[in-house]
Write a structure and sequence with these properties.
The chain is an all-alpha fold. It has helices at about 1-10, 15-30, 40-60, 65-85, 90-120. The protein has one domain (about 1-120).
């Protein structure tokens, strides 16, 4: 929530949109997540695909580089879902832990984008 607040306070339109996508992903994930399940989270996969699509859309329209990193981390989330679905050797613990790592990296990258947005506006050309 702090990163989303930072994006609203210091960010430009793309940081605010990325924060809104992140909040929507979080809210939808709370609905579709199956706790205590080591199976592939198919509902979560669908939500993450929507998130990835929006981050790619933001990255294609932004002159900044941080949205590319966010889209890449979202793609790694999708790859983690695919790896767990295709390989039964991937444990539930590894699956959920890597999802958490990619989520934190997305969060930190959006935070960086929001923090540095106004600094770029204040830099003389």
């Amino acid at each position: 929530m702090a990163v989303c607040s930072l994006a609203v306070w210091r960010g430009r339109d793309e940081e605010r949109l990325a924060a809104a996508v992140l909040l929507a992903d979080w809210a939808l994930s709370m609905v579709v997540f199956k706790s205590r399940s080591e199976d592939t989270q198919w509902g979560e996969l669908a939500v993450d695909f929507g998130q990835f699509s929006m981050f790619v859309w933001i990255a294609m329209r932004s002159p900044r580089f941080w949205p590319l990193s966010v889209a890449a981390f979202a793609l790694l989330q999708l790859a983690t879902h695919a790896a767990h679905a295709l390989d039964v050797g991937v444990t539930g613990w590894a699956y959920l832990t890597t999802q958490l790592i990619w989520s934190y990296l997305i969060l930190l990258t959006i935070g960086y984008g929001a923090w540095s947005a106004r600094w770029l506006d204040e830099t003389p050309s």
